Amino acid sequence: MIESSLSQMGAALRAKKISSVELTQLYLDRIAQLNPELNAYITTRPEASLAQARAADARIAAGTAEALTGIPFGQKDIFCAKDWLTTCGSKMLHNFVSPYDAHVISQFNNAGAVNLGKTNMDEFAMGSSNETSHYGIVKNPWDKARVPGGSSGGTASAIAARLCAAATGTDTGGSIRQPAALCGISGLKPTYGVVSRYGMIAFASSLDQAGPMGRNAEDLALMLNTMAGFDERDSTSLQRDKEDYARDLNKPLNGLRIGIPKEFFAEGLGNDVAKAVEAAIAEYKKLGAVIVDISLPNTRLSIPVYYVLAPAEASSNLSRFDGVRYGYRAPEYTDLADMYEKSRAQGFGAEVQRRIMIGTYVLSHGYYDAYYLQAQKIRRLIAQDFVEAYKHCDVIMGPTSPSTAFKLGEKGDDPVQMYLSDIYTIAVNLAGLPGMSIPCGFGDNDMPVGLQIIGNYFDEARMLNVAHQYQLATDWHSRVPGL
Amino acid sequence: MSLSTQDVEKVARLARLAMTPAEIETARAQLSGIFGLIEEMQAVDTKGIAPMSHAQDVAQRLREDKVTETNQREAFQAIAPQVEGGLYLVPQVIE
Q1: Residue of B nearest to A312 (CA)
Q2: Which chain A residues have a beta carbon less than 8 Å from that of B72?
Q3: Is ipTM over 0.90?
Q4: Rounded distance, CA A149 to CA A185, Å?
Q5: Mean pLDDT for each consecutive 10-residue tract of chain A (483 residues)?
Q6: Contacts of B53 in chain A (CB under 8 A)
Q7: Which residue ranges form the domains of chain B, and what is each CATH number?
Q8: pTM of this structure
């Protein structure tokens, strides 16, 4: 059952071949067995999960089940979930039991889905290796000496190890796509504004976007149907007609124009990754696609621009953590300012403090024009590169990450090296475009390689079609790590 | 770009982060490296380019000036570090 697609699982549940309680227990048993080593989940509450499963079974019996009713999902610990400890990977929120549900959580609850637990992540989603979590490193199921990627590393590891049917992630600079690539699973970051950010703990508000992560494109389409939609509680949520993201899955790819940006295959890309991605593009040619050479000349600048804008927004968003209303408060202090300074210094980890400092600096008096404003102007140049490119192609393809999963601790002491590994994903967030990663082979040390598919605005249904057709022709997405 | 110890101390103070002299020194070295990466931006000619704050250039929605949230004081204060009589407690600010 755990290798079935979400639609097969849903059908089996509705046909009463298996109950949601049985399916949930199956995953809870796997979590009990494998999570102590992988550390993919921060919090599980088996009784709460089983209560949701019993409610789902009642709904199935009553004949009111929807597509996801009774299916067990993991939820990234960035989403506030009522009565669940919601830590965002930080000591700052070590005791934060959320009094409310994020919009994404409500959507899953309303659909009758089961919450299996809260998945591990880099602290406040700041990291590319899941090593900044206060709750310990997460291991990559393909090689437990390697990172799962980040920041949605717990979600990616849990899906690869079959510790959930699928799970949620969030992506500010690549945090869905990069861990999906490194763990050999599929993940989609929608167009900015498609999924509500309400109750999703903020990192960089103009870039943050939630999305589905799972074993294949078809599953992602079903999840996105549940997650997407207008929500007035998020001021940047877009008012659009409801759409069925699975509607185009079975369209043939004849004549599809795939843009290949030369900047994505330049210096810095690992040979093993290049080989797997080129083989995937060759497969697309066999499926009827046409290759178009394109250029995204400002790709290189996306890293400096991102590392100004994201920390600036983070320093502002994270100013709310002051030890007054919720979260961590230092045990000893002399006055109010000392309480703020000690609570924040003790509650935030090193990477979060580093980014708060970068953001505070670039926003401080006398530097705003040189850094923040200049970065926002170059952001427009980066977005315009894509607008120009989409005059000549329907989707853009390239690698998701320059290398496969690296060893735990390998890049830990060098923030600049870690930041450079986000080169292929960041521009997509800056432009607000949808991007996804699907498995397309294995590189050195038999570690998974991800193919990135970047779509035009609101073109998620086409991207899912493009991914699904590849997954019908290949079996990389159904490979399972030996555990 | 190289930041001075004073620069980093000032930023730490603005960000309300207590740091020891050793932590300031580590932060100075790392931030200098990161700003070296960021400096690449300065050479780009952006004359006449409008800054982009959001991908979709949509206008901010307005809503009626009406209370829509329900009172959840008890639920919210149940998770606060220190409360008394329905108030959040902090060290004395005014003598």
Answers
A1: B15
A2: 99-100
A3: yes
A4: 12
A5: 96 98 98 98 98 98 98 98 98 97 98 98 97 97 98 98 98 98 98 98 97 98 98 93 97 98 94 98 98 97 96 98 97 97 98 97 92 96 98 98 95 82 96 98 97 98 98 97 91
A6: 206, 376
A7: 5-43 (1.10.20)
A8: 0.97
